[in-house]
Design a protein that fits this description.
alpha/beta; 60s Ribosomal Protein L30, Chain: A; 2 domains; 6-stranded parallel β-sheet; 4-stranded mixed β-sheet; 13 helices; 44% helix
């Protein structure tokens, strides 16, 4: 008897044929593949081999671009800083590694000749300022806006045909405070602001943002010697008023006419020499348990008191009878 005539073998063949004739599930087998035509492979297959690398590369590039956007006024490296100095670009501060050698000394000499501020720091400070970028022991903070001169501030008052209204900031270090003061100064009608060239914040990107655009309208001058700057303003006929905690209440002070308001830094207030040069010292009376306001808030109170008194004086002159 042949193998095919064996009943046991024939039973296994019948069972095998039944399985082969069972209905296929949708989308399975060669026929289904033919019907689907150019169906796109699953997204998971498209990422095969690059899933771990591509997202990381994108994230790294994004962070690097973001750092540039946050520090558009940061110049990094020896050659870029040297060229910025040579070109006459306005630089607020040069950060130099304390133990720097070679061309750093030449750059330091160039910076001193131009009267630029140099701050010596440790390497770790530059590493934090320039993460992932080769700083070569040197970086510079460029101003986001050009500085004016005191003469240009006075010219601004002359063009408006107004008595000069100037603000001097004695050692302000917080960029948010400077930006807020510029904003208040613009709103109160001040003609300009004078800041020290050393140990004070300059016109950084943070200052520009905090000013809400006022940096474009309020001239800012730098003074190498703030005491001398006050003396020059007094020679031009300005009445210099200092803001400090132990002065007379500001509402009792005469703030009309040509006026310069001096505001101290966040920590120490007015320095002794600058205080001695002021014609009067005024204060802001406080009713609560806190003894003082921060620099930008205190400045805003005085700036708008000056504006109020100047406006009253102007209205009085307008309504005076003609004899």
């Amino acid at each position: 008897m042949s193998k095919r005539d064996n009943p046991r073998f024939k039973g296994r063949e019948d069972e095998k044929n039944k399985k082969s004739k069972a209905p296929r599930r949708p989308g399975a087998g060669p026929k289904a593949a033919k019907e689907t035509g150019d169906r796109k492979p699953a997204a998971k297959k498209q990422w095969s081999g690059s899933r771990e690398t591509e997202p990381r590369q994108r994230a790294f590039g994004h962070d690097r671009d973001r750092d540039r956007e946050e520090n558009p006024n940061l110049i990094i490296g020896r050659n870029p800083v040297m060229e910025a100095i040579k070109s006459g670009r306005t630089i607020d501060k040069i950060l130099m590694q304390r133990d720097g050698e070679g061309s750093i000394k030449k750059i330091a000499s160039m910076a001193r000749e131009r009267g630029l501020q140099i701050q010596y720091v440790e390497k770790i400070a530059l590493d934090r300022l320039c993460p992932g970028r080769p700083h070569q022991g040197l970086a510079a903070m460029a101003a986001v806006h050009d500085y004016a001169s005191v003469a240009e501030i006075m010219e601004c008052a002359a063009v408006r045909q107004e008595d000069p209204f100037v603000i001097l900031l004695d050692g302000l270090e917080d960029p948010h405070n400077l930006g807020a003061i510029l904003r208040s100064a613009e709103g109160a009608g001040a003609h300009g602001v004078v800041i020290p060239s050393r140990r004070a914040v300059g016109l950084t990107e943070t200052v520009a943002k905090a000013s809400a655009g006022a940096i474009e309208y309020v001239p800012v001058a730098k003074a190498g010697n703030m005491v001398r700057a006050i003396e020059e303003l007094k020679e031009l006929g300005l009445w210099v008023t200092g803001l400090d905690m132990d002065g007379i209440p500001y509402s009792q002070a005469e703030l009309k006419g040509p006026v310069a308001l001096v505001v101290g830094g966040e920590g120490g207030g007015l320095s002794r020499l600058i205080r001695e040069k002021c014609d009067q010292i005024v204060s802001i009376p406080m009713s609560g348990k806190i003894s003082s306001l921060n620099a930008s808030n205190a400045a805003a109170v005085l700036l708008f008191e000056i504006r109020r008194q100047r406006q009253e004086s102007k209205e009085t002159e307008t309504h005076e009878p003609i004899l």
